[in-house]
Amino acid sequence: MPANKRDKASDVFNSTNYAFCSKVSFSEAFPQIKNMRVEVEEDGEGVYELSKRQVFYKENMGEFINCSNSRCYNGGFNIGSIIRNMVESKRTEFETDRRCQGYEGSPKGKKRYGPCFNSFHIKVQIAYNE
Q: What's this model's pTM, rounded to 2 decimal places?
């Protein structure tokens, strides 16, 4: 791993093998979702005006949305858990705030300096199949 590249939440998830479940595509995991829109506004270190607001749809959705802080390891938040909770309760709209789950550390990852303080404002809209 290059010194300036720190794995984010989606990198850690993608490289992890789970003993009791397997990873599947979004469509396989949520066949009941017809359309979805997730708007994420991030504040904090490494967030620039052009990247501050991101929009995701079911075609480009993953389990995690990453943090923009270049000093953050395992940074981002779990959007998959939000979507699973919405689907379970048949919610069509949801809005929340999340803190980054990552931590800032030394370039080689040997020292932890403390938590990442980036935050995310999330708006989710789901349309279900009939």
A: 0.82
Query: Which DSSP symbol is given to 75?
Result: -
Q: How far apart are CA 22 and CA 30, in angstroms?
A: 14
Helices (H) and strands (E) in the chain, counts: 3, 9
What does residue 17 show for φ and ψ, rounded to 5 degrees? -105, 130
Strands (E), 20-106: 33-43, 53-57, 64-66, 72-73, 76-78, 93-99, 103-105
What is the residue whose two structure tokens read 């689907």? 87
Give residue 16's pLDDT band: very low, low, confident or very high (50, 70, 90). Answer: low
Long-range contacts of 87-94 (CB under 8 A, 24+ apart): 87/30, 87/32, 87/33, 87/126, 90/128, 91/126, 92/125, 92/126, 92/127, 92/128, 93/123, 93/124, 93/125, 93/126, 94/122, 94/123, 94/124
